[in-house]
Amino acid sequence: MPGKFCVSITCGKDNTDKATVGFVVANAAVASDKQTVVFLSIEGVRLSQQGYADTIHEEGFAPLKDLMANFAKAGGKIFVCSPCFKKRALDETKLVDGAAVVGGAKLVEFLGEAAPGISY
């Protein structure tokens, strides 16, 4: 079924359960032929950095690094909140596959066409 879907993730190692479940849902959406964006903001922007998610593995789920890699391979996009990214002085040369640092206007553009979403 065509359409769009957005998953907003605001946490990283401060709440690994929410970060993991967010990417589980994102993978389900992209596998359902939805044009899917994960929007990382607040502490979630740390997930955009290579190596950060490598040690996150919630019981009962695939490792977060695998969920993120599978999402990108399936064509999912990761929008990283620019002000949140800059506030934390992260490195744009170390972004994970599928990630791009964007301003709020890019997210609004994506959501502007009746894209349902969920937040973690």
Q: Can you describe what's shown?
A:
With 120 residues, the chain is α/β, with parallel strands linked by helices. The protein has one domain: DsrEFH-like (Hypothetical Protein Ychn, Chain: A, 3-Layer(aba) Sandwich), CATH 3.40.1260.10. It has helices at 16-31, 64-73, 82-87, 104-111; strands spanning 4-9, 35-40, 77-81, 99-102, 117-119.
The number of helices is 4
Q: What is Rg?
A: 13 Å
CATH architecture title: 3-Layer(aba) Sandwich
Query: What is the name of the CATH class?
Result: Alpha Beta
- The averaged pLDDT comes out at 96
Count the beta strands. Answer: 5
Q: Give the percentage of residues in beta strands.
A: 15-25%
| Distance between the amino and carboxyl termini | 24 Å
What is the total number of structural domains?
Answer: 1
Which geometry do the CA atoms define?
Answer: globular
H-E order: EHEHEHEHE
Across the major sheet, the strand order is 4-3-2-1-5
The major β-sheet equals: 5 strands, parallel
Low-confidence stretches: none
User: For the record, what is the CATH homologous superfamily label?
Assistant: DsrEFH-like
Could you write a compact summary of the structure shown?
With 120 residues, this protein is α/β, with parallel strands linked by helices.
Key features?
120 residues; alpha/beta; Hypothetical Protein Ychn, Chain: A; five-stranded parallel β-sheet; 4 helices; globular
Helix/strand layout:
Blueprint: E1 4-9, H1 16-31, E2 35-40, H2 64-73, E3 77-81, H3 82-87, E4 99-102, H4 104-111, E5 117-119
Parallel strand pairs: 1-2, 1-5, 2-3, 3-4
